[in-house]
């Protein structure tokens, strides 16, 4: 497999998150199309957002981490019995943010990315940084690509790096 020259830098940004059991549990949750998990979707959003923010001179670390955690809601949104009383479309960003804050220290940009990623569907949750707008836009494009069958599950495309706990942290 040919690697992008900056690929290790991306993995360094998210290795701590990838080693977490809750993030790995997203592999078991369906996303926008059969065969594409919440984990697959989140990694795709994270990697594309990281590359775009890096190219634009924005905070690629926040985009990578916020993008990976943006759907950390940890229930099967397709089965209402797993989240009674929760309106998934509008409420899952707050649930994902609470779950992420309970597990990781977040920067204000990472928190904003998670909280606002459903704008304009959640019109009162407008972006406070450009990284949030990038991740939100990439999220919608990835969802559309998944629904149209243009995206294969992440595990079929690129294996995750071995021993994420041995990787160095990403510098802010």
Q: Level of helix content?
A: 40-55%
User: Helical stretch count?
Assistant: 8
| CATH domain topology | Hypothetical protein af1432
Residue-averaged pLDDT: 82
The first-to-last residue Cα distance is: 28 Å
Main CATH class: Mainly Alpha
Instruction: Tell me the name of the CATH homologous superfamily.
Output: Hypothetical protein af1432
Shape: globular
Q: Give the count of structural domains.
A: 1
Q: Give the SSE order as H and E letters.
A: HHHHHHHH
Strand percentage, roughly?
A: under 5%
CATH architecture type = Orthogonal Bundle
Judged by helices, strands and strand pairing, the structural class is mainly alpha
Radius of gyration, in angstroms, nearest whole number: 15 Å
Assembly type of the shown chains? single chain
């Amino acid at each position: 497999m040919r690697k992008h020259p900056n690929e290790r830098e991306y993995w360094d940004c998210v290795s701590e998150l990838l080693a977490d059991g809750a993030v790995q549990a997203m592999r078991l949750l369906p996303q926008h199309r059969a065969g594409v998990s919440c984990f697959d979707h989140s990694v795709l959003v994270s990697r594309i957002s990281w590359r775009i923010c890096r190219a634009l001179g924005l905070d690629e670390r926040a985009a990578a981490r916020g993008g990976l955690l943006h759907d950390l809601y940890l229930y099967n949104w397709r089965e209402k019995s797993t989240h009674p009383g929760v309106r998934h479309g509008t409420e899952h960003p707050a649930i994902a943010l609470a779950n992420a804050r309970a597990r990781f220290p977040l920067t204000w940009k990472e928190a904003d990315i998670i909280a606002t990623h459903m704008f304009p569907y959640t019109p009162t949750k407008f972006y406070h940084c450009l990284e949030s707008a990038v991740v939100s836009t990439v999220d919608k494009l990835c969802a559309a690509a998944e629904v149209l069958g243009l995206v294969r599950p992440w595990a079929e495309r690129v294996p995750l790096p071995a021993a994420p706990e041995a990787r160095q942290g990403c510098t802010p």
